[in-house]
Write a structure and sequence with these properties.
heterodimer; A: alpha/beta; Amidase signature (AS) enzymes; 11-stranded mixed sheet; disordered C terminus; B: mainly alpha; two-stranded antiparallel sheet; 3 helices; 2 strands
């Protein structure tokens, strides 16, 4: 049951073939079976979940206010504020933080009747590509427990792939939804900057961060987007723009769609098996009636260094708030205010967060601001121009989501730069504020490969249509990790 | 490239061990060295892009709202007294 999609389960719930309480208990059974190996969660909230499930069952019984997510168990990345449930960002500095309020997307999910299961693991403050930077533990990829699930939303992606939730929310600053979706063989969408409220999302790099879905198929992504999208007066960067019914984009047709295959992401640095799978996906889209041509976005080779100046600069400013005064960890070793700051931050932050605070502080400091930060902002403008030009010719662009399949735990931890390069295909999208989706398009050595589809700002509907068409004509998304299948309970349906 | 690690750490109010100073000095130099490739791109005429979307300042009426959850907010404070955050003495 836990391997079904939200839309399948919605039919079973409304037909009263199952109850939300049964479903929620089933998911917790799966969690008990596999969580000690996957370690997707930081906090589980079983009692609250069952209470929400009972309330959902009441709604279903009365046929009142039903939404496609009523009674559906969902996992939340632990950088989104949940009132009365710990919100740690997988950081020791926030290990005991109980937010006094709910993020807007949490309120929306509650109003829809969704059942929150708990909070998922991430790279500390969403800084990383493997969850190995979590201050608590590393999450394991359900397809091969010796490999990483990707990051930073690795906990959410692994939970979806292993049946430890039905769907999940993640956040994406440089690829943190799409890259783990790719590594774990699930669907992940980074919406347009401003499409989803970030009120209550703990800030990492504010000009790049965006919340989005991780799901088992494209239909569930559309359903979750319908619930979480829209302007929020509490997030001044959320955009006043009508939210379409994204399910209407679930049309199995790409005839006459102009699709650009990004040649700069099909060259060196990208594994052969990945290139083969992406070329096959391009050919398949062509056979379905799309017009596929190669396109070059030459500034892409500058995207990673640009990002690693801008994102740490913003992070160094955003993370100044963790000072041991208002919340979170405070060191016991200090003689005055200044030494309290030094010790609190030294004890509370892990190595990658410290590295980025240092990098960002340096890039913003007097004498280096123009050479690094300002230069990066200018290159960012050129990257966006490249996209603008490409979208004059194409409806959507496609590329690999990541240059490789999931790598081994520990393989890249000693070399930050090699870790940063694993986001080479996803980073340009954040710099330009665009929407992009990753969905399964093949396997290499038993590990999933992700196809990235990029659209213009607020063109989520086109992405969903192309993604849906590809999915309906392929079987990749139906494969489950053998480990998830082996532990599946007896069918009760 | 030589990074003034201690000066940067001071600006960031970040305590570092000797080991971290050495490691971050090397790693930052390597990452910033990599960033040098940006200089291959001429950008004299390019205006900097801080946000991808044309965002404007959003203002609202300056109204007083009651704070319903002051207790929850203060419950997170490492040290507090009568709903005020306590810090080490900053004035003699």
């Amino acid at each position: 049951m836990q391997n079904k999609t939200a839309h399948e389960l919605h039919s079973l719930l409304t037909a009263k073939k199952i109850s939300s309480v049964e479903l929620t208990e089933k998911v917790f059974e799966q969690i008990e079976k596999v969580e000690n190996r996957v370690r997707a969660y930081v906090t589980l909230t079983k009692e609250k979940a069952l209470k929400a499930a009972r309330a959902a069952d009441e709604r279903i019984k009365n046929g009142q206010d039903l939404t496609p997510l009523t009674g559906i168990p969902i996992a939340i990345k632990d950088n989104m504020c949940t009132r009365e449930t710990l919100t740690t960002c997988s950081s020791k500095i926030l290990a005991n933080y109980l937010p006094p309020y709910d993020a807007t997307i949490i309120e929306k999910l509650q109003a829809a009747g969704a059942v929150m299961l708990g909070k998922t693991n991430l790279d500390e403050f969403a800084m990383g590509s493997s969850t190995e930077n979590s201050g608590f533990h590393t999450t394991h990829n359900p397809w091969n427990l010796e490999t990483v699930p990707g990051g930073s939303s690795g906990g959410s992606a692994a939970a979806v792939a292993s049946g430890e939730c039905i769907l999940a929310l993640g956040s994406d600053t440089g690829g943190s939804i799409r890259q783990p979706a790719s590594f774990c063989g699930v669907v992940g969408l980074k919406p347009t900057y401003g499409r989803v409220s970030r009120y209550g999302l703990v800030a990492f790099a504010s000009s790049l961060d965006q919340i989005g879905p991780l799901t088992k198929d494209v239909t569930d992504t559309a359903i979750l987007m319908n619930i979480i999208s829209g302007r929020d007066p509490l997030d001044s960067t959320s955009v006043e723009k009508a939210v379409p019914d994204y399910r209407k984009s679930l049309v199995n047709d790409v005839k006459k769609f102009r699709i650009g295959l990004i040649s700069d992401l099909m060259g060196k640095g990208i594994d052969e098996e990945i290139k083969k799978a992406i070329k096959a996906a391009a050919r398949q889209l062509e056979s379905l009636g799309a017009i596929v041509e190669e396109v070059s976005l030459p500034t892409f080779e500058y995207a990673v260094p640009t990002y690693y100046l801008i994102a740490p600069a913003e992070a160094s400013s955003n993370l100044a708030r963790y000072d041991g005064v208002k919340y979170g960890h405070r060191s016991k070793e200090f003689t005055d205010l200044l030494s309290m700051y030094y010790h609190t931050r030294q004890e509370g932050f892990g190595p990658e967060v410290k590295r980025r605070i240092m990098l960002g502080t340096y890039a913003l400091s007097a004498g280096y601001y123009d050479a690094y930060y300002l230069k990066a902002l200018k290159v960012r403008a050129l990257i966006k121009e490249d996209f603008d030009k490409a979208f004059k010719r194409f409806d959507v662009l496609i590329s690999p989501t990541a240059p490789s399949v999931a790598f081994k735990i520990g393989e890249k931890t000693a070399d930050p730069l090699s870790m940063y390069l694993s986001d080479i295909a996803t980073i340009p999208v954040n710099l330009a504020g665009l929407p992009a989706i990753s969905l399964p398009c093949g396997f290499s050595n038993g590990l999933p490969i992700g196809l990235q589809i990029i659209g213009e700002a607020f063109a989520e509907e086109k992405l969903l249509q192309v993604a849906y068409t590809y999915e309906q004509n392929t079987e990749w998304h139906k494969r489950k990790p053998s480990f998830a299948k082996a532990t599946e309970g007896k069918p009760t349906l | 490239m030589q990074i003034e690690v201690e000066q940067v750490a001071r600006l960031a109010r970040l305590g570092l061990t000797e080991e971290e100073k050495k490691l971050f000095g090397e790693q930052l130099a390597r990452i910033l060295g990599y960033a040098e490739i940006l200089n291959k791109l001429p950008t004299e005429k390019t205006p900097p892009l801080t946000h991808a979307l044309p965002l404007k300042n959003v203002l609202r009426e300056d109204k007083v709202f009651p704070c319903q959850n002051a207790g929850d907010i203060m419950a997170n404070a490492p040290d507090e007294e009568e709903h005020m955050f306590k810090v080490p003495k900053i004035l003699e």
